[in-house]
Amino acid sequence: DVATKARSTASGLSRVEEFLAASNCSLNFFLAWTTAANKFVLRYRRTIESTLKFHPNGCLVVYSPTLELNHFQVFWDMGYNIIVERPDVPYLIAGTPAEKWYEGIEEWRKGQYFFSHITEIIRLATLFKYGGVYLDTDVIVMQDLHDLHNVVGTELAGARGESKVLNGAVLLFDRGSRFIYEAMVEFNTTYRIDSWGWNGPELVTRVAGRFPRGAELRILPTMAFYPIHWAKVAKYFRDEDPEDQHIVWSQMAKETYLFHYWNKITKKLVPQPGSLMYKVLNNYCLMCNDTSTDG
Q1: Which of 247, 237, 157, 244 is nearest to 205 (CA)?
Q2: Other Cβ atoms within 10 Å of 220 Cβ, number
Q3: Sign of CA dihedral 146, 31, 121, 190
Q4: Within 10 A of 118 (CB to CB), how many other CB atoms are there?
Q5: Segment 1-18, tens digit of pLDDT
Q6: pLDDT at residue 9, rounded to an integer
Q7: Is 142:258 a contact under the CB 8 Å cutoff?
Q8: Residue 224 to residue 260: CA distance in whole angstroms
Q9: E-assigned strand segments in the chain
């Protein structure tokens, strides 16, 4: 059950709160994995590796009802701070606008997009409660993220570079963020059980459209997180048009904080040696000698 309660402890703190308090984290990172444990293959592990490569003193919390609690023991043994936690959704959303949405949880479970929607709530509530970085598992970190605060990335820009579509696959927000609070209000008041995008990728675009730019919200250009649009990404899994691949790679190496590679579209693609995706997966890793057919 994705809402399983998993609170700790004699201190009264949750297991996550104890972990964060004890680890002296330079930056908090949160991910969610709600599908089967055996689907967590090498390319998703590279998300963990690339994050730790640039943030060795950061703390990673992977919310998952399916992964074993010791799934990332190898990283812990290497000295990194990482835990798997069972998502306790009622605890995370207590005192937030998402509490009202959760009252209908038995009805929402019937929807075909429930796991995507519950992951959205986990992402928003976690950032509001703890602050830090939320990452989808189909990203590779390419730079240190410490200097980014209260930012969301542009997925699609207009002809003059203006942001048209934002995306919540990567969110970096301070604890108690007013923008994240407004996103939870929007999620609760406009929820649609029948739509994947409305409550997910489209949510941050709507909220940002009426939220003032400034210290509480910065919008980064496409090159920051989404340098290759989903409609074009398959090409960069193949070893073709080397000149273009080199140009894009060179620009990303300078301007991209992390690369979201659109797993919904690319999960069945195998990165070919010489392709941009092959370079990305194998240049920002810790256990780079590990290989598999997906990476």
Answers
A1: 157
A2: 18
A3: positive
A4: 21
A5: 444 344 545 556 789 999
A6: 52
A7: yes
A8: 10
A9: 28-32, 59-63, 81-85, 132-135, 139-141, 151-157, 163-173, 218-220, 258-260
